[in-house]
Amino acid sequence: QVQLVESGGGLVQAGGSLRLSCAASERTFSRTRMGWFRQAPGKERESVAVIIWSLGRTYYADSVKGRFTISRDNAKNTVDLQMNSLKPEDTAVYYCAAKTTIAGDYDYWGQGTQVTVSS
Fold first, then answer.
1. CA-to-CA dists, residue 55 to 25, 58, 59, 118, angstroms
2. Amino acid 17: pLDDT
3. Neighbours of 31 (CB within 10 A)
4. Rounded to an integer, what distance in angstroms lies between the CA atom of residue 117 and that of residue 38?
5. How far apart are CA 93 and CA 108, in angstroms?
6. Looking at residue 38, what is its pLDDT?
């Protein structure tokens, strides 16, 4: 069973930056894509950024485009989310997830890390 562990959350002022990191317990597990999601209180979970593993292609929600960057660090076996120009509306629990097939849902999820942006 693959485990994903997020780190890097915290409290930051609006306009600031945070870098989230997601570490996988197994280096060689097969994955088609990895993503960062977030869920704010009273709202549904939403996709923030996705990286297609084999191609390195990335996709972003419109709300974070130009401010967030998803990347992979092969040496550390992590997927990171660099978040710049943070806004209070970015406040949420952020989750990392991994997908092992082309179709279907994400197979593995982390426990989440809280990001709070103060105004």
1. 22, 9, 12, 36
2. 98
3. 22
4. 14
5. 16
6. 98
CA distances from residue 45 to 15, 36, 40, 42, 57 in whole angstroms, order as listed:
23, 10, 7, 10, 22
B/e letters for 38-72, b = 16+ CB within 10 Å, e = fewer, are beeeeeeeeebbbbebeeeeeebeeebeeebebeb
**pLDDT tens for residues 36-79?**
999 999 999 999 999 999 899 999 999 999 999 999 988 888 99
Can you name the residues that pair with 113 across neighbouring β-strands?
94
Cα–Cα distances in angstroms (integers) from residue 32 to residues 29, 35, 38, 107, 114, in the given order: 10, 10, 20, 11, 26
Q: What is the pLDDT of residues 16-42, one digit of tens each?
A: 999 999 999 988 888 899 999 999 999
